[in-house]
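Worked Example 4.2. Consider the chain below.
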Amino acid sequence: MFIKDNSIHSVINYFEEKLCETFSNREIKLIARSFISKRLGWDSSDFISRKGEKVSESDLLFFREKINELLIGVPFQYVLGETFFYNILLKTDKRALIPRPETEELVDWIISAHKEEQGLRILDIGTGSGCIPLAIKSVLSSAKVTGLDVDTEAMSLAKENATSLKLDVEFLQHDILSYEGLIKEWDIIVSNPPYIPVKEKSQMAKHVLEYEPELALFTTDKNPLVFYEKIADFAVEKLNKNGWLYFEIHESNADGVIRILKNRRFKELTVRKDLQGKDRMIRCKR
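Applying the procedure from the previous section yields the following structure tokens:
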């Protein structure tokens, strides 16, 4: 076999040997532990108490297959098939974008600002994997939460995540660029819409371009803020009085999005930086 014995120690060494030119030592340790935990059902204590155990030939083939996927550039979260987001475990695959840490910061802002309120009606536009509405619902249990997306595949993934998490979130397939027919009103609308101009494709990481859905990433070069305009128009009609609109933004778009919101007479505009010190989130009041 390609590993001299079947020990966990040798499996971890195999991950290090194969991935050392692609990932840092810290990343390799995380990757190895993640795949071992998923395959064997281990938790962190097992790596101490069961470190002398051996794995089967089938397990070894599983680990080699996953390493090979990583080596051709498939994102780690897609290879693993899951990722943690704001303390919930989400199924993750090519049907939707991989949830980002910056989006966790947006979710935390919403939850922190509204944790004392009951029965809120909350809409997430461009929901993808469902990470935003599911994370919010996991904490704000009394809220009536809806996720909306135009993509059929993303909708199916979001519904699967809601089922596995046993969270009561409604998912609707709809194009926010033509939102007629959405008759409900909400207390909070949140969105992390596509905001990368097509012309910036050449600056994107190869693994993002090859494996993550373009529909969720890119907007037009002619009007990169078209989704912000449409969602702001929608919010003018569909947000309750004194309702809140939250956006995740590209770091260079804060001024443009603020201008859109001011033109529609939103109040109490606030820009918040992410943990990297970049303008990343905007909140305003109807």
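The first strand starts at residue 82 and ends at 85. The mean pLDDT is 93. Compare this with Example 4.1 before moving on.
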